[in-house]
Design a protein that fits this description.
Blueprint lengths: L1 H27 L2 H8 L6 H10 L9 H32 L1 H15 L14 H13 L5 E5 L4 E3 L2 E3 L4 E5 H4 L47 H18 E6 L29 E6 L4 H5 L1
Antiparallel strand pairs: 1-4, 2-3, 5-6
InterPro entries: Cyt_P450, Cyt_P450_CS, Cyt_P450_E_grp-I, Cyt_P450_sf
Family: Belongs to the cytochrome P450 family.
Pfam families: p450
Length: 289
């Protein structure tokens, strides 16, 4: 509830500030000029939501709480979770030089070291995809899926009455030794071998549910699974990383960095990842292509 109140205060300020700015804009412009210039004005996400909420003839009526919920989703689900996944992936690659070497070899093979990896290469980067799945298995950005049952049902011999809120711990599922062999080992190859090669992140396989499942699955999954391969592929291709520990001391290459987590709505690292990027490739020829 404390977090909810703090978020609500932040969102209320963002919306109120934008409403005040919109009112001042209307006052400065006369009605005709405002209408003529409205189509040329660059609008952001919040402007569009406020336009819809102010349009009394709109088929879908947005309340203030609806707008706050959408903005909160935009903050947390659309940006924070992807950033957290990139951070965990880079940390795991630093701790596993063998995996990092294989990832670089794959990117080099696809790009021939003649250009930067791009979105067009996604389908040709199976090992990068396996790294992403393995990262999401060990470090799902959202640890709990919550659903409200609409019918009585029995799960594992326990009766779940209709109306019950059920929490599914996908963090624990990803580390369950009865489901995964050597679950604490970061081994992307598990998603390239045997039955593991058929496991996807779309919610079809209940042992890997980073985006949830069903109609209430994360709508940002397609965007995330297009962003992550390109971001991680580019970081792998272009840079070496000099890592620092939580006290700001340079970590010797080959010395694992800590992988502690901190609690929250998402699951970020307990200590932010601090590293110095060292260029591996000269980007100038790439930019000229």
């Amino acid at each position: 509830m404390k977090i909810h109140k703090r978020y609500d205060a932040l969102l209320e300020k963002i919306i109120s500030d934008r409403e005040n700015l919109r009112r001042k804009t209307k006052i400065v412009m006369n009605k005709q000029d405002y209408d003529e210039g409205e189509d040329d004005k660059v609008k952001d996400f919040l402007d569009i939501l406020l336009d819809v909420s102010e349009d009394k003839d709109c088929e879908v009526q947005l309340s203030r709480n609806n707008i706050k919920s959408l903005i909160l989703d935009y903050f947390t689900a659309a940006t924070d979770t992807t950033a957290i996944s990139v951070e965990w992936a880079i940390a795991e690659l630093f701790n596993n030089p063998r995996v990092l070497k294989k990832a670089r070899e794959e990117v080099a093979r696809v790009t021939m070291n003649q250009r930067l990896v791009s979105e067009d290469d996604i389908s040709n980067l199976p090992y990068i995809h396996a790294i992403i799945k393995e990262t999401l298995r060990l470090h799902p950005p959202i640890t709990l899926l919550m659903r409200k049952g609409i019918h009585d049902c029995v799960v594992g011999g326990y009766k779940i009455p209709a109306g019950s809120v059920v929490c599914i711990n996908i963090w624990a599922i990803g580390r369950d030794p009865t489901i995964w062999e050597n679950p604490m080992e970061f081994r992307p190859e598990r998603f390239l071998e045997g039955q593991g090669s058929t496991i996807d992140t779309k919610g079809h396989h209940f042992n890997l549910l980073p985006f949830g499942s069903g109609r209430r699955g994360c709508p940002g999954m397609p965007l995330a699974m297009r962003q992550l391969p390109v971001i991680i592929g580019a970081l792998v291709q272009c840079f070496d990383w000099n890592m620092f520990d939580s006290k700001g001391k340079l970590v010797d290459y080959g010395t694992p960095i800590d992988m502690d987590e901190r609690p929250g709505l998402t699951v970020p690292r307990a200590h932010d990842l601090h590293c110095m990027l060292v260029a591996r490739l000269n980007p100038i020829p790439f930019l000229q292509l």
